Amino acid sequence: MQPPPSPTLSRRRFVSTAAAGAGFLILPSGHRLGAQTPSNKLNVGLIGVWGRGLAHYDSISEENVVALCDVNEERFADALKRFPGAKTYVDWRVMLDQQKDLDAIVICTADHTHAFIANWALNRDLHVYCEKPLAITVNEARTVRANWLSKKGKLATQVGMQRHAHPNFNRIRELILDGSIGELKAAYAWGNRQIPRPGYPIGDGAPPETFHYDLWLGPAPYHPYSPAYFAGRAGANCLEWNMFWDFGAGQIGDMGSHTMDLLWNAVDAKLPTSASAKGEEFNPDVTPVLCESHFEHPANDWRGPITVSWYQGGVMPRPPKPFIDLDKISHGAMWKGSEGFLIADFTSRMILPFGDNADLTYYKPRTKETTLPEVGHFQKQWFDACKDPSKKTACDFEYSGNMIEQMLLGLVAYRVGQKLEYDGEKGVVTNVADANQYLTKEYREGWTLDG
Ligand SMILES: NC(=O)c1ccc[n+]([C@@H]2O[C@H](COP(=O)([O-])OP(=O)(O)OC[C@H]3O[C@@H](n4cnc5c(N)ncnc54)[C@H](O)[C@@H]3O)[C@@H](O)[C@H]2O)c1
Question: Per residue in 271-329, pLDDT tens?
């Protein structure tokens, strides 16, 4: 057994220390949960307790759930059945300021609040799991990533791209790193989901008294209440609001997060040096259904420069052979190398050697012993890292922040209609001054990203 912690040891440090050691520890006297709680559990707050929030109940129930936050008070009754000891809040800002014993939060709210909550939580030294997408503007992505990088090694982060835990992700990475398609030249990801909307719903009555619509809007510009935003089933209600510019990033933030992750895991890209895009006519209310964007990425230490492309809503990359029908893969990715193609969906993959020299002699498969380790349980990977932040998470705010920044830059290129040259270090479009205004957006008075 380890000695009791010194009174000066912070609660978070204490949890880490306890996790690293074996057995139970005596908590400092006076700690709210100390008497009943094994010391290696984290105090967790869940923000957004219904919908996607439900998918986190099992994993967070392994820890102490001390706080629940939702703008819809009707959602608390069921959540409290599962987490009876938790305190409830309707405003996440109040929760973060008043719930002093928090170690970690899980964010399952609407997309336009993700970067806000994540950034405020990092400012308070909390570990953060944020549902995808991490951000809906380039500036939000950069802000949250920079904040986390300044605390890397002390705080654990993860973006909810849980498909990443499928072994297929790393098998693809191995195939590319080990040369199965020669030298990597280009990569393409696509998704065919279509959610056309004409514009924001018209105002329709007042919200129920138990629904804090103003807090749901949060930093977004005001739009009148409509029940249409909330008519979806649990876990899919995001499809009722994520097409609107003020609340989401369309398919880029939705399936695009998952599918670009499949591609991203195998290319080791950071920020692009250029972005170009085209799609349907620009609608100031609604993000495009049909759109394709293309990015140039510089060489890294194992490959030359590559292009990365994203296609959504039905536009598709050209298949390598007419007999390969990429349309049959609704959300997929393809990598092009000097000697062939690799084509995949989330759970399977195929290689197509291509050209007269494609004899596979250049492919040096690794031994079983050197295959990349499994991610395991995706949420648990984050909890393990919260307890020992020297551990890596698969989709931390650097990896995921870079990925979504690229995708959101594509939306800016689509909006401006020109190829953009991008200085990723500074976060500035260098050739089209007008484009820079779209890297960020105006927030409602009283809301700040950096609170
Ligand atoms: N990882 C995945 O596979 C996956 C799947 C579905 C949804 N999601 C993501 O999860 C998030 C939520 O999606 P959803 O379909 O559950 O949406 P939703 O509209 O059903 O919202 C979920 C819950 O959050 C609450 N909420 C919304 N804004 C809030 C705020 N500002 N403060 C407190 N509570 C708030 C809602 O009242 C609701 O109870 C989205 O960002 C979506 O992209 C991820």
Answer: 999 999 999 999 999 999 999 999 999 999 999 999 999 999 999 999 999 999 999 99
Report which ligand 1 atom has the smallest distance to the Cα of 239. Answer: 15
Q: Kindly report the CA angle at 288 between 286 and 289, in degrees rounded to 5?
A: 115
Contact call for residues 108 and 47 (beta carbons, < 8 A): yes
Place of tokens 């009943």: 36
Q: What is the CA(129)–ligand 1 centre distance, in A? A: 13
**Residue 44, SS3?**
strand
CA distances from 371 to 66, 262, 345, 349, 365 (A): 39, 17, 20, 16, 9
Q: Write out the H or E segment, with its range, that includes residue 16.
A: helix 11-20
Which mutation among 109, 158, 195 tests ligand 1's pocket best, with the greatest number of atoms within 8 A of CB?
109
CA distance 117 to 48: 11
Distance 16 CA to ligand 1 centre (A): 29
- Residue 329 burial (CB < 10 Å; 0-12/13-18/19+)? buried
Give dist(CA 448, CA 250) in Å, integer: 23
59 token code pair: 């994993």
Is the CB of residue 167 less than 8 Å from the CB of residue 372? no
Give tens-digit pLDDT for 100-149.
999 999 999 999 999 999 999 999 999 999 999 999 999 999 999 999 99
Distance from residue 432's CA to the centre of ligand 1 (Å): 35
* pLDDT per position as a tens digit, 212-256: 999 999 999 999 999 999 999 999 999 999 999 999 999 999 999
Hey, what domains does the chain have and what are their CATH numbers?
Answer: 164-195+249-376+398-439 (3.30.360.10)
Closest CA to 96 of 117, 112, 79: 117
Q: How far lies 427's CA from each of 4, 268, 437, in Å?
A: 47, 19, 12
Q: Rounded to an integer, what distance in angstroms lies between the CA atom of residue 118 and that of residue 98?
A: 16
Q: Which atom of ligand 1 has the smallest separation from the CA of 253?
A: 43
Confidence of residue 7 (pLDDT cuts 50, 70, 90): very low
Distance of CA 236 from the midpoint of ligand 1 (Å): 9
Query: Please, what's the b/e burial string for 46-69 (b: 16 or more CB within 10 A of its CB; e: otherwise)?
Result: bbbbbbbbbbbeebbeebbbbbbb
Is 339 in a helix, a strand, or coil?
Answer: coil
